[in-house]
Amino acid sequence: MPFPPDFAWGTATASYQIEGAVDEDGRGPSIWDTFSHTPGNVANGDTGDVACDHYHRWADDVDLIASYGLNAYRFSVAWPRIQPTGRGAANQKGIDFYRRLVERLVEKGIRPAATLYHWDLPQALQDDGGGWQNRDIVDRFAEYATIVYEALGDGVAWWITHNEPWVAAAIGHRIGRHAPGLHDATAELRVAHHLLLSHGAAVQAFRSLGLGAPIGITLSLSPTYPQHETEADRRAAILSDGYTNRWYLDPVFRGEYPADVLDLLAEHYALDWIRDGDLTRIGQPIDFVGVNYYARRTVRAPVGGEPAEFAWVVSTEHRPDIPRSDMGWEMTPATFIDLLVRLKADYGSPPILITENGCAIDDTPGSDGAVHDPRRIDFLATHVGAVEEAIERGVDVRGYFAWSLMDNFEWGEGYRQRFGITYVDYETQRRIPKDSARWYAEVARRNGLG
Ligand code: FCB
């Protein structure tokens, strides 16, 4: 059995995607409220106003996790519930909500993994100097983190500073499909740096409190491959990997930005927001890295004057023999193994938590009332199999969190993409365990695929 006896079998969610209750108990508005309420940003005009109504149904949702026999659960704390304007005194009602949640999880033997930032920035901080573009946010984030550490420190089993800084920076600030919806490459690069710096600041703040639980950061890592075996495409793949993966891994693990990407970016951007001492702060020792893995990325060199992402073009061609989810994402478990083995080889064999992995498939209840989702089971089985294989090859993976506990607000896609192992009927808020939930419960019980 490759899975260690205390391996974490969990599911994951994020505050804005499930909570709803956006103006209850003193919660301030977040950039996702503003973004989703702006017509044209989210499919169907969907918003997180109600979402899965988890803010009111949290106790039943904990029971649901317990009914699956899972021993871990990853959630995120909504900054605007804790500090409605992103600064100043804590909002006690917001704290109470997460305290109750953590206490109940612990009571049921479910280890809580808390993410401090899963994209719902208080709108007031966005209005004040551009949110993550403004260096002051680093102190704001450390202050917020300290409030949460002090409130939940006795129950949380793993702390995660940020969720997917690449996505927050790139999709939020250059590609514009996530809040705050900017189209500005300079903003993206500044934001990426400040997210990383605030990670370092939050780790420092954590250490100074002397709390014992492990702390880390969750990165979206996509192993990147050349579309054609040509010199130009190989070079494009190395740079693209550098910009999405190494740009985050290298500062966190080595206290430096990757030289090849730094040179490339420095040709076009001042990068003067990177100051002396920043990299040391970002490179504080951490206890684990959270890996969110969905799919590989294939890129090629731009041709002629073709519009490119910095120096590469993300391929949209798909091989018909590779299955894809309803998001259009390829399902390639073998490249998951490559990624994990590479993390071990290149970054000193860090402890790893798989903090997200899953797929969107639009399965709905059949005439028998049940939700049969064999494609999701297949996805999860092959990816848990990849983790097993990585562990056999010596990679130190300590937990796996399926994305997601239940169908929820999938950002720009709204409610039309269903990632849950639990079906949510948004009309009635009824939760229906899908076949994949039963299958996953069995995996957790056996501590592996068996
Ligand atoms: C990740 C996000 C998560 C979810 C999945 C599908 O990028 O961290 O919130 O939306 O994608």
3D structure, described in words:
- An eight-stranded parallel beta barrel has the order 1-2-3-4-5-7-10-11, surrounded by five helices. A three-stranded mixed sheet has the order 6-8-9, with helices on one face.
- Helices cover 41% and strands 14% of the residues.
- It is an alpha/beta fold.
- The site of beta-D-fucopyranose has 12 residues, from loops.
Question: What keywords describe this structure?
Answer:
450 residues, 15 helices, 13 strands, binds beta-D-fucopyranose
What is the gist of this entry?
The protein is an alpha/beta fold and 450 residues long. It has helices spanning 15-18, 31-36, 54-67, 79-82, 92-107, 123-127, 137-152, 165-175, 185-209, 231-254, 259-266, 278-282, 333-346, 374-392, 435-446; strands at 8-12, 72-76, 111-117, 158-163, 215-220, 224-226, 288-292, 297-300, 313-314, 352-356, 397-403, 422-425, 430-433.
The dominant shape is: globular
Question: What share of the residues does DSSP label as strand, in percent?
Answer: 5-15%
| Category by helix and strand content | alpha/beta
Query: Order of SSEs, N→C?
Result: EHHHEHHEHHEHHEEHHHEEEHEHEEEH
Helix content: 40-55%
- Main sheet: strands, sense, barrel: 8 strands, parallel, barrel
Question: Strands of the largest sheet, in order across it?
Answer: 1-2-3-4-5-7-10-11
Task: Catalogue the ligands.
Answer: beta-D-fucopyranose
| Termini separation | 8 Å
From the alpha carbons, calculate the radius of gyration and give it in angstroms: 21 Å
- Contiguous low-pLDDT stretches (5 residues minimum) are none
Number of helices: 15
Number of strands: 13
